[in-house]
Q: What sequence folds into this?
């Protein structure tokens, strides 16, 4: 995690120069929050930190056994690389939505080809018995999560922070499940890959938090989504919760519920965006200013406070979900309700503060 953060932080200036040279720059549009052109393609630095940290991990004796030739770790690495390439092309040339979607499906197919497949749905013991359904289910999950992260990437530091927070909760969840299933071996693909993912987000945030010097672009957002989806598929499809003993029994649906809770903010935003656009007769990929972060800005939040509010909600929901695996459910439920009430109070209080200069720019944006 630390290595991924350090490498990403050092590679961002390189990615910035590369983006400027290749013309990967986000110009100011009516729906945008930034007020001057900013280079994108920060995902190149993020993917570099992700790959290098995992390559180093593969040489560590303690971790090397999860990097065998047929390991799903390589499927996540290669699939995320294809997704990053698709994002780079979009950052430079701004692909049509259907061309980008085709690239996302290709990346998801590559991950499935290398063994990252949703082979079972731990709901009432349902197992996917068809290779085609395995492939279809994997592609749907990867494309959905990748676009969820991409849709929520609308404020400085928002996507990296949300994925980092949710990723850390998922790391704790995956690591705990691994220890319960095999007390003699604490290594797992999901835990190691997620650790690198969290490090990548931490290393990128200093360059991306308001005022951002560089955007991650689609190269970063799609890549992060692919990694998150890949680790979720690995855990959901390959860990049998019936073998896990905890302070309170884990429901059979928990391996699906936890990833959904960790990604609840971008998933809700994506669902609402698609529904809103379809009802208007628009393409689901039609850009607008109706995302959660835009709505917070219109309600009077400053740029930074809107991001921190979404961080807060992501932390409350994702860590509550992960804690439900480790601690008794009644205790977790009580703590989650208390934290949610506090979060509501903070959110409302921040809305009542005087409107910050520049916030009015977003008040009349099309929703």
A:
């Amino acid at each position: 995690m630390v290595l991924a953060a350090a490498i990403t932080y050092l590679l961002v200036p390189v990615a910035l120069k590369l983006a400027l040279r290749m013309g990967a720059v986000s110009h100011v549009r009516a729906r945008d929050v930034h007020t001057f052109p900013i280079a994108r393609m920060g995902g190149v630095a993020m993917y570099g930190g992700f790959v290098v940290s995992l390559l180093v991990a593969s040489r560590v004796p303690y971790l090397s056994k999860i990097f065998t030739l047929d390991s799903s770790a390589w499927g996540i690495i290669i699939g995320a690389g294809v997704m990053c390439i698709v994002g780079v092309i979009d950052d430079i040339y701004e692909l049509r939505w259907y061309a980008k979607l085709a690239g996302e499906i290709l990346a998801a197919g590559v991950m499935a080809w290398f063994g990252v497949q949703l082979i079972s749905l731990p709901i009432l013991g349902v197992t996917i018995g068809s290779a085609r359904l395995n492939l279809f289910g994997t592609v749907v999950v990867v494309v959905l999560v990748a676009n969820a992260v991409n849709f929520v990437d609308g404020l400085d530091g928002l996507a990296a922070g949300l994925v980092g927070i949710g990723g850390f909760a998922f790391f704790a969840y995956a690591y705990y499940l691994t220890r319960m299933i095999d007390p003699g071996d604490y290594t797992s693909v999901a835990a190691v890959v997620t650790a690198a993912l969290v490090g990548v987000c931490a290393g990128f945030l200093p360059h991306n938090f308001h005022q951002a010097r560089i955007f991650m672009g689609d190269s970063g957002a799609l890549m992060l989504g692919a990694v998150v989806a890949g680790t979720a598929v690995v855990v959901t499809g390959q860990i049998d919760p019936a073998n896990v003993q905890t302070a309170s029994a884990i429901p059979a649906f928990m391996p699906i519920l936890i990833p959904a809770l960790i990604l609840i903010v971008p998933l809700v935003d994506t669902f609402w965006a698609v529904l809103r656009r379809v009802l208007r007769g628009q393409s689901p990929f039609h850009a607008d200013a109706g995302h959660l972060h835009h709505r917070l800005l219109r309600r009077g939040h400053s740029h930074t406070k809107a991001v921190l509010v979404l961080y807060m909600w992501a932390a409350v929901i994702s860590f509550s979900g992960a804690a439900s695996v480790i601690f008794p459910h009644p205790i977790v439920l009580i703590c989650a309700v208390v934290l949610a009430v506090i979060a509501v109070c903070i959110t409302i209080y921040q809305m009542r503060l005087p409107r910050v200069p520049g916030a009015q720019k977003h008040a009349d944006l099309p929703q």
